[in-house]
From TrEMBL, chain A:
PANTHER family: ABC TRANSPORTER PERMEASE PROTEIN MG189-RELATED-RELATED, SN-GLYCEROL-3-PHOSPHATE TRANSPORT SYSTEM PERMEASE PROTEIN UGPE
Subcellular location: Cell membrane
Upper classification of the organism: Bacteria, Bacillati, Actinomycetota, Actinomycetes, Kitasatosporales
Pfam family, one: BPD_transp_1
Residues annotated as domain ABC transmembrane type-1: 98-291
SUPFAM superfamilies: MetI-like
Organism: Streptomyces cellostaticus
Keywords, comma-separated and alphabetical: Cell membrane, Membrane, Transmembrane, Transmembrane helix, Transport
Recorded family membership: Belongs to the binding-protein-dependent transport system permease family.
Protein name listed in UniProt: Sugar ABC transporter permease
This protein's record includes keyword Transmembrane: yes
Membrane topology label: Multi-pass membrane protein
From TrEMBL, chain B:
Keyword Cell membrane tagged: yes
Gene Ontology cellular-component terms listed: plasma membrane
Protein name, entry field: ABC transporter permease
Lineage summary: Bacteria, Bacillati, Actinomycetota, Actinomycetes, Kitasatosporales
Gene3D superfamilies registered for this protein in UniProt: MetI-like
Provenance organism: Streptomyces cellostaticus
Protein's membrane topology: Multi-pass membrane protein
BP GO annotations: transmembrane transport
Residue stretches making up the ABC transmembrane type-1 domain: 67-297
Cell location: Cell membrane
Keywords, in A-Z order: Cell membrane, Membrane, Transmembrane, Transmembrane helix, Transport
Length: 305, 308
């Protein structure tokens, strides 16, 4: 299946004629469009600079004091103002936002994986009336504009007393992560061999036990991919909490930062805000660099259906 | 495997399906129903008003503006993003060929470095990206204008997000910036699965780089490009454009409604103006646009599937 073998794209590319390469240095590359070559390399480098510059600029700015942020945006900081970071963490409540985000994402990630794999397993492996209907009901959710549902959802959540609560947000995150999760894991469970499960079943294991002890461990690569996908989606989620989570104490990271930026209009602690931005940015970037291969595989797997 | 099968199926489906029905399916159905009422969202009372909301929508100038902007997003953003991504991916994976003695096709030097760096924006929250660029665009003290001053362009100091004719393009640029990398990596994976013999054959026939791209790479990558197109369009109509416009622009949606998109207009009508029923009407229009977009792309893009 395509989705599982995407992790190492380029490396696995062209092993065909690699055998007879006696390290001739690429000195003799040229002719056809030297200009074109310079142009395309230039474009590649330019885009890399355009991606990295704003991020480096943000890191640099988070160490500057307010006057030099406005006076000379591109100058290096006169000294490293670590107090910006301390202020952002405590005064601007970044610490609380981090905690809220960890709680919400932790809960909803586990819930999404458990519920998603249960539904996907049943839909992939069992024939029953309505199977296709339920599958398309889930998958259809991927292409519908969520905002349309959010208007009534606000009142549904409110009536259940779940508005502005962490567990309410967790349940909503799970519900909106299910379409992709079910879609992806159904395809994944279909690729797994049936013989092992049948053997377990013959040996007297119940369906439930077969699922948790045999199938789930076998589906681990798929769970990791879809888990990374959901983790980033939920960690970076902005629209759902903006609508459903209006209590200042319960804000998640993205919301908190935006609120902070809005309130800077009269507080004027821009350096603290930049420190907060970088603080929110660096863990995700760091995790990406460490788990680069898995993250890329997890995020692109779905689109290569 | 019949023993207790149905009990198991029901037991496993109940929780996920129940949650999904309650928080996703039911609100969708409700919102279509509400679009025929005069519900404010503030009180529980409402009555049916037929197609009044739809009539009102067709006479609402701001709605038309938001529709126009959303359509522009759905057309321009995939075109620019996928175009750039295809170019970069081709350069990274196939561009560095014609090295004597080396493999027939190979990437440029540093190809894995490019792929890592280009992917950075994809892991960041769109909210953080938007905040960052809102500062960069600031006309007085922002990074972009001071860079322009730094290289001697003192006279070129646009207002960026403050200029009604520029603001929408500024917003789109941010979305392009944050999504190109994802598609570069996606297309790279697709290109890696194209057999090298095809490139060798094209090369032997004396194909130039451009010909190779249009005659070999693009046709074989078409399925991926197409699903990328739909994916990008749905993003541009939905959640991503909401975050960018809501965070970056004045108003939000300004100046002078020049950046209002449909998804933002739904939000403002429902949660700012207390016109929940009218908001769902615009939401239904957004649903129609989204489904029509997906259907058109799938139809236009249909061609014979190439097996390789």
């Amino acid at each position: 299946m395509k989705t599982t073998e995407t992790p190492l794209p380029a490396e696995s590319g062209a092993p065909v004629v690699k055998i007879d390469v006696p390290a001739t240095r690429p000195a003799a590359r040229k002719k056809e469009g030297g200009v074109l070559n310079v142009f395309s390399h230039g474009m590649l480098i330019l885009w890399a600079v355009m991606v990295v510059m704003p991020l480096l600029w943000a890191v640099m700015t988070s160490f500057k004091d307010d006057s030099s942020i406005f006076g000379s945006p591109w100058s290096l900081p006169d000294k490293l103002h670590f107090d910006n970071w301390a202020r952002a963490w405590t005064d601007a409540n970044m610490g609380d936002y981090f905690l809220n985000t960890v709680l919400v994402v932790g809960g909803s990630l586990i819930g999404t994986l458990v519920l998603g794999s249960m539904a996907a397993y049943v839909l992939a492996r069992f024939d029953f009336p309505g199977n296709r209907f339920i599958y398309y009901l889930f998958v259809g959710g991927m292409s519908f504009p969520i905002m349309l549902a959010l208007v009534p959802l606000f009142y549904v959540v409110n009536n259940m007393g779940l508005l502005n609560t962490i567990h309410g947000l967790i349940l909503v995150y799970i519900a909106y992560s299910l379409p992709f999760t079910v879609f992806f894991l159904t395809a994944f469970f279909r690729t797994l061999p049936t013989s092992v499960a049948e053997a377990a079943f013959v040996d007297g294991a119940s369906h439930t036990r077969t699922f948790f002890q045999i199938m789930l461990p076998m589906a681990k690569p798929g769970l990791i991919s879809v888990g990374i996908f959901n983790f980033l989606g939920q960690w970076n989620q902005y629209m759902l909490p903006t609508v459903l989570n209006t209590d200042p104490d319960k804000r998640v990271l993205t919301q908190g930062l935006v609120q902070l930026a809005v309130s800077q209009g009269y507080k004027g602690d821009w350096s603290g805000l930049f420190a907060g931005l970088v603080m929110a940015m660096l863990p995700v970037l760091g995790a990406y660099i460490v788990f680069q291969r898995q993250v890329v595989a997890g995020l692109t797997a779905g689109a290569l259906k | 495997m019949q023993h207790g099968k149905y009990r198991f199926i029901v037991g496993f489906l109940a929780a996920p399906l129940g949650l999904y029905a309650l928080f996703v399916v039911w609100p969708f159905i409700q919102s279509i129903y509400y679009s025929f009422t005069d519900w404010t969202g503030l009180s529980p009372e409402f009555k049916m008003v037929g197609f009044d909301n739809y009539t009102r929508m067709f006479h609402d100038d701001i709605f038309w503006k938001s529709l126009q902007h959303s359509l522009l997003f759905a057309l321009v953003l995939p075109l620019v993003t996928l175009g750039l991504a295809l170019f970069f991916a081709f350069m990274i994976n196939v561009g560095g060929r014609r090295r004597r003695g080396g493999p027939v096709i190979s990437g440029v030097r540093g190809s894995s470095f490019y792929k890592i760096v280009y992917f950075f924006p994809q892991v960041l929250s769109i909210a953080i990206v938007s905040l960052l660029f809102a500062f960069a665009y600031n006309p007085d003290s922002g990074a972009i204008n001071s860079l322009l001053r730094g290289i001697g362009l003192d006279t070129v100091q646009p207002l960026w997000l403050g200029d009604p004719s520029l603001a929408l393009w500024c917003v789109m640029a941010v979305l392009v910036w944050s999504t190109v990398g994802f598609f570069v990596v996606l297309f790279s994976a697709g290109m890696a699965s194209i057999p090298a013999e095809l490139y060798e054959a094209a090369l032997l026939d004396g194909a130039s780089r451009a010909t190779t791209f249009f005659r070999v790479t693009l046709p074989l990558l078409w399925d991926t490009v197409q699903s990328g197109w739909v994916y990008m369009g749905i993003l541009a109509l939905g959640a991503e454009s909401f975050a960018v416009v809501q965070i970056m622009t004045t108003g939000p949606g300004g100046p002078d409604y020049s950046t209002t998109v449909m998804v933002l207009y739904v939000y403002q009508k429902a949660f700012r103006d207390g016109q929940a029923a009218y908001a769902t009407t615009i939401g239904v229009a957004l649903l129609v646009v989204t489904l029509a977009f997906a259907a058109i792309v799938m139809r236009l893009g249909r061609r014979e599937r190439l097996e390789y």
